[in-house]
Amino acid sequence: MNILDQIIERKKQEVSAAKSEITVQKLQDSEFFHRQKLSLKDSLKSKSGIIAEFKRKSPSKGLINDEADVLEVAKYYENCGASGISVLTDTHFFGGSIQDILNIRNDINVPVLRKDFMVDEYQFYEAKSIGADVVLLIAACLSPLQVKDFTSLAHELGMEVLLEIHTEAELNHFNKDIDLVGINNRNLKDFKVDLQHSVNLKNLLPKDTLSVAESGIYSVEDFRFLKEKGFDGFLMGEYFMRNQNPGKAFEEFVNYL
Known about the structure:
The protein is of the alpha/beta class. Helix content is about 40%, strand content about 15%.
């Protein structure tokens, strides 16, 4: 069983437990459930294009940064021109939680992406209840029909969808209602990074598709290469989070662009 399969198996167990603790009705009664979303599609066009991520650890890299404060980092990201903030909410494998988004929602005025492994409708009500503007759908762990149904539900709840793909076969998961397509430079099964592979895959998307390069961007040169190849957005986290002051690292990176 590869790491992605392990994550999905555990995620289904966690969602089942969450359902027994907090009902969908209670989620719908939450403070943020009826707030108007901020559009990541619009924000990518008006700011740096970088979706700056807060991530404490990962299965491939282990511990990245367990001392940074999510609000302090998110505010720094925003003040230095981030188009959006991505927050890992998986606890077991990535060290995050939905509380991380709750801790920043009232203080952040750029779109917030809930980055998690969405496998159940319940998670979309949960994402809306904590104030997420965008949800991630990972093609590698969903069927094309699930992507279509989950996209419809996300839109019904007032959230945008970022579909993540990595292989040519996963292009079949794309549909016209998808808001943005993220192409993961890192293979989720073996965690190898290949920027050119992502460029090749991007060129197979419909011409007007908003595309986001995800993961494995470790330098200004990587960023410029992907931008020159036509990517609209750039999801970056580890590069900044490995610094003692992730916000400062983001500021320095942007100043080089």
